[in-house]
């Protein structure tokens, strides 16, 4: 496809011009001898225009795809109609454009009905459209939409994957053509805004076959060699405006994936403000033009210096104020009594320390006495519950009972002997032999009854003593512990833990077993 002329502005509508040579008075015969020897440019363009308008049909149905569509302020429609190999400029005048039922757009396949004309001021022929009918979306535009949909589904357009643009880049790499207007605009803008930034140009072809591969390779090479180049903070990918075909290298999938895989932030500045490419959608920041990309890449150095100057002045003023306030505070502190007589503080502190020491000693003594008393009480209670001590007390009680029993038996024997003596006296007084024998028998029976009662009482007391001894042996603490039981006490006060609520998480408890004691820490209060 031929490249666009350097002046890519669309031509204005053709106007009638006067030329010193009127081609209508010339012969149309192909014999060049009938023409003047010397022709001006205007004469030549007029001759070509007459030849085109007379030699070609007055009505031509042109099939192609719209590109570079533009609606002028006058209402005229300017566009380029193209196919896979060629393109032609076309215009539709305002009076005819008003009857259109649709809005023409780039990439739209159409059937344009009109005639061929020559724009004499530039010597370019164009197609004057009288009627325009849409056919469908063009191949390039359809390919663009399909690639956009695929990359969007893969997440390459997701704003969450875009990297932040550094605010103060020191070294910027520019991927563009070395001879195009884009590099001049970028360098001029960067030098104007921030002359101290270093710019590295990686020249590539931005149009034509192989341009997309060059751009992608340049992005990969800059990422791989960033450390050797001293570090790169930012990459600008840009080029000037053009048709969809001219910008197609920027729309290639290989370029989009290279931008998406770049570890260095990328700004895309392609074409004019109305141009949107796939590189713009994938890049970390989209700029409307190459100049706008340079403006977004660096701040204005003058504004930064002015801001730094203002901040420095504010900082200096603030430091002076702080120094004045600090000097006033130092003077106020120097006037305090503690600096005039510092030993008074030491004496007051010593006196306070003595008072605290006395209170601490008194509190410690009271606490020690309470602990000793508590230990003595516990020892007394423990001794009172020892099996040997209980058995000793029961033995003393049993001995006391036996002593009292002996005394009662002796007393009863004495009284019985007295009664016997009295009876003997009465018998001696009365001398009845039978009564004596009966009395003697009753006395023998009573003696035997007393003996049996004493024996039974002694046997019952012995059995009771043996049962008590066995109960004491069964309830002795060491035997209980030997059977697998334990005694758990709180380590802080030695109280026995009888229920889960007696301890809380973090408390230390001491467990006593038959073989010894150990300590543990509570992690659960048992409420769950």
What topology emerges from the helices and strands here?
Elements: H1 41-55, E1 60-71, E2 77-82, E3 87-92, H2 94-97, E4 108-119, E5 124-137, H3 139-154, E6 171-176, H4 181-193, E7 198-203, H5 211-224, E8 234-239, H6 253-261, E9 266-270, H7 278-282, E10 285-287, H8 290-297, H9 301-334, H10 337-340, H11 342-384, H12 387-430, H13 433-474, H14 477-482, E11 487-490, E12 508-512, E13 517-521
Parallel strand pairs: 3-5, 6-7, 6-8, 8-9, 9-10
Antiparallel strand pairs: 1-2, 1-4, 2-3, 4-5, 11-12, 12-13
Helix pairs in contact: 4-8, 5-6, 12-13
Task: Report what the structure shows.
- This protein has 528 residues and is α/β, with parallel strands linked by helices.
- It has four domains: 23-137, OB fold (Dihydrolipoamide Acetyltransferase, E2P), CATH 2.40.50; 157-299, Succinyl-CoA synthetase domains (Rossmann fold), CATH 3.40.50; 385-475; 482-521, no CATH class.
- The chain contains 14 helices and 13 strands.
- It has helices spanning 41-55, 94-97, 139-154, 181-193, 211-224, 253-261, 278-282, 290-297, 301-334, 337-340, 342-384, 387-430, 433-474, 477-482, and strands spanning 60-71, 77-82, 87-92, 108-119, 124-137, 171-176, 198-203, 234-239, 266-270, 285-287, 487-490, 508-512, 517-521.
- It has a five-stranded mixed barrel. Strands 7-6-8-9-10 form a five-stranded parallel β-sheet, with helices on both faces. A three-stranded antiparallel β-sheet has the order 11-12-13, with no helix packed on it.
- Helix 4 packs parallel to helix 8, helix 5 (211-224) runs parallel beside helix 6 and helix 12 packs antiparallel against helix 13 (433-474).
- The model is unreliable at 1-33 (pLDDT under 50).
